[in-house]
Write a structure and sequence with these properties.
The chain is of the alpha+beta class. It has helices at about 50-65, 70-90, 140-160, 170-185, 220-225, 235-245, 245-260; strands at about 5-10, 20-25, 30-35, 100-110, 115-120, 125-130, 135, 200-205, 215, 275-280. It has a single domain (about 5-280), classed as PPM-type phosphatase domain (Phosphatase 2c, domain 1, 4-Layer Sandwich).
């Protein structure tokens, strides 16, 4: 069973809804980071359909995880329910996967002395073992390198900043091409309204003895390590334990808004991303 030591989930901007969520229930915990194509109207009663998906998935995981024994089956079930709920309200023109919310997710389960980690895309599990070593589990570091290179390219081509890049034609053209590849099954598997994606969840298993600390993060939080390089993974977890998650979130905001708002040092597609962390002890 997990004990929640701390949690935080901040929107990247006060002008936009938070499209992250996180939660824990007995031996299970998760962090979710969703998105939707810019400008897509919301139809699910939230400020954004990505916000709806993040909240819906988190609530259903809380309800279903205590009876679950298989991560992919649990995720598939939640995605099937999300698809049914969304399509029941969506007008016909929104029955196109291009306009659907999608997301990254890390789902963990402790069983015996092991931690199963299932992930979609660039959320991360930082696992501090009893000997103090910290493991980084997930695809975020590799995906971050690709995104930084693309962000640098598009920022230079458009003359925009991370705060304005999403409004440019060059960014929206690139994003549309990426969404089209995703729609055709040629992109990474994501949390969303296509339950078959659960078959492509990344899975790892790592030791999880009594007292192991697990920090689950969205990429807006792990940016302190893999984008801003303000600290390494071990320091991130140690600082979370000693100073709390809010201190780390504030440090990220300081870098984003005061040190590098123009995105020259740290190329990115948002000045500040939604920032979510969940700190647990087994």
């Amino acid at each position: 069973m997990f004990t929640v030591l701390d949690r935080i989930s901040w929107p990247g901007s006060p002008e936009k809804p938070n499209e992250d969520s996180c939660g824990a229930c007995r031996d299970w915990a998760w962090v979710i980071d969703t998105s939707i194509f810019p400008g897509t109207p919301a139809i699910m009663g939230e400020g954004s359909d990505a916000t709806w998906l993040a909240g819906f998935a988190s609530r259903r995981l809380s309800d279903l995880a205590p009876q679950a024994d298989d991560g992919p089956a649990l995720v598939r079930h939640v995605m099937e329910e999300a698809r049914t709920a969304f399509l029941a309200r969506a007008p016909q023109e929104r029955h196109d996967a291009f306009t659907w919310p999608v997301g990254a997710m890390t789902l963990v389960r402790r069983k015996g002395g092991r931690l199963d980690v299932w992930s979609f895309a660039d959320t991360t599990a930082f696992v501090r073992r009893s000997d103090g070593a910290v493991l980084t589990v997930g695809e975020a570091p590799g995906m971050r390198q690709f995104e930084m290179a693309k962000a640098a390219e598009l920022l230079q081509a458009s003359g925009a900043t991370p705060k304005t890049i999403v409004q440019t034609t060059v960014f929206q053209t690139w994003l549309a091409e990426r969404r089209e590849r995703q729609k055709q099954g040629r992109g990474p598997a994501l949390l969303g309204l296509d339950p078959s994606a659960a078959d492509r969840l990344r899975h790892e298993s790592v030791p999880c003895d009594e007292g192991t600390v697990v920090l689950l993060t969205s990429d807006g939080f792990s940016a302190l390590v893999d984008l801003y390089q303000a600290m390494d993974a071990k320091a991130l977890v140690e600082t979370a334990l000693t100073d709390g998650l809010e201190a780390l979130a504030r440090r990220a905001r300081e870098i984003e808004t005061q040190v590098d708002p123009e995105g020259r040092l740290y190329p990115r597609f948002k000045e500040s991303d939604d920032t979510t962390g969940l700190l647990l002890r087994a």
